[in-house]
């Protein structure tokens, strides 16, 4: 039976005459932090899976339904705009609202009928505006990046043009980072190193060699004990093959903690052996564990960044695996309430008198927003 990691990979002071040394305390602290990061990544894995499932099954269909209801609302208001019963001022205000609503929806839907309605009420051309916006973006990128993007993008559809522009930005960023790295390496190579710098580099390289040696020794002991070709029993050979795969994966990642866990699981080390790790070896272990902790922190940041990007969140938005599903549920509740309100409003828009009342409230709201934030 596998022993508890929390009890196992910890240096205990029960077998010491005095308190733990600074290196031993550091070892225990690093192990605890690594376990916390591991738990965080597992929590992200579980929460992200649940989030993606609910997002695909509930959020996306509901979001599309809300857009469809809003499109139907625009059609209804457009019909009412052409009917009798509205004053000239009401007709102008309604036309502005229709244009704003249609413009917002066309960002998500290439709806030909909606474009015609927008063009009529805005006095403009949506495709022309979109093309001009992309042309401005292209010109700005040419100026900032000091490149000529050529004419091939001019004939591309807006979506295709955006994809190509983003790809070019990504490529330029990679080129810039590679050039920066090359410049730094060239600077370092051109500098004449002092005796102190050379000694420091030699020491650092020796430390790196010792760190590799420390983790390699743990790996070799496990590999020797688990080599499946030396096992005659088929079931035991299969078990050792699985464990050896885990050992290889841990070694490739420099995952010292996992290698120690496997040693403990196979009873190649015990609590007495953990307590007896000498200070020199412990210093090497602590350095490896520190690097492992940094890699886990980086992995967590990558997971968070990927989540923000995947679901259209701000790069600076705070995300937490413990709250993302709860926040999604809140959004779904609000969207369902909005759906009910929109359905009720759409049904009432069959009466011109109700549109006049609604329009009065809408005009007041637009005026309030204008006073607070300026035109929108």
Give the arrangement of secondary structure elements:
Elements (H helix, E strand, L loop, with lengths): L4 H4 L13 H60 L6 H19 L5 H11 L3 H20 L12 H33 L4 H32 L7 H19 L3 H10 L5 H5 L3 H32 L13 H25 L3 H22 L3
Helix pairs in contact: 2-3, 2-11, 2-12, 3-4, 5-6, 7-8, 7-9, 7-11, 8-9
Q: What does this protein look like?
A:
The relative contact order is 0.12. The protein contains 13 helices and no strands. Residues 1-7 have low confidence and may be disordered. By secondary structure, it is mostly helical. The protein has a domain at 20-99 and 294-376. The protein is elongated and about 95 Å long. Helix 2 runs parallel beside helix 11 (279-310) and helix 7 packs parallel to helix 9. The longest helix has 60 residues, at 22-81.
């Amino acid at each position: 039976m596998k022993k508890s990691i929390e009890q196992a990979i910890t240096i205990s002071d029960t077998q010491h005459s005095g308190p733990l040394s600074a290196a031993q305390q550091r070892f225990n602290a690093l192990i605890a932090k690594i376990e916390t990061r591991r738990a965080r990544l597992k929590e992200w894995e579980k929460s992200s899976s649940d989030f993606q499932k609910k997002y695909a099954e509930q959020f996306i269909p509901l979001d599309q339904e809300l857009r469809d209801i809003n499109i139907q609302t625009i059609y209804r208001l457009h019909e009412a705009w052409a009917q009798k019963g509205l004053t000239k001022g009401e007709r102008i205000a309604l036309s502005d609202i229709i244009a704003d609503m249609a413009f917002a929806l066309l960002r998500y839907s290439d709806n030909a009928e909606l474009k015609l309605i927008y063009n009529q009420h805005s006095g403009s051309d949506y495709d022309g505006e979109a093309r001009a916006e992309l042309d401005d973006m292209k010109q700005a990128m040419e100026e900032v990046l000091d490149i000529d993007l050529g004419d091939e993008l001019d004939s591309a559809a807006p979506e295709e043009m955006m994809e190509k522009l983003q790809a070019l930005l990504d490529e330029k960023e990679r080129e810039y980072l590679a050039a920066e790295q090359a410049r730094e390496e060239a600077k370092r190579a051109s500098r004449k190193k002092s005796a102190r710098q050379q000694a420091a580099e030699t020491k650092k390289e020796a430390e790196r060699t010792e760190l590799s040696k420390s983790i390699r020794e743990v790996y070799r002991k496990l590999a020797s004990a688990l080599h499946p070709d030396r096992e005659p029993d088929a079931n035991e050979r299969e078990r050792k093959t699985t464990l050896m795969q885990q050992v290889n994966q841990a070694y490739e990642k420099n995952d010292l903690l996992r290698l120690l866990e496997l040693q403990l699981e196979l009873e190649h080390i015990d609590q007495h052996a953990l307590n007896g790790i000498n200070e020199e070896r412990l210093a090497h272990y602590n350095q490896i564990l520190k690097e492992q902790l940094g890699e886990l922190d980086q992995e967590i940041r990558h997971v968070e960044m990927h989540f923000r990007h995947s679901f259209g969140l701000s790069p600076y938005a705070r995300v937490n695996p413990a709250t993302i599903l709860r926040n999604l549920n809140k959004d779904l509740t609000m969207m369902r309430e909005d759906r009910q309100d929109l359905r009720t409003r759409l049904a009432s828009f069959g009466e011109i008198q109700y549109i006049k009342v609604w329009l009065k409230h809408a005009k007041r709201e637009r005026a309030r927003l204008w006073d607070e934030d300026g035109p929108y």
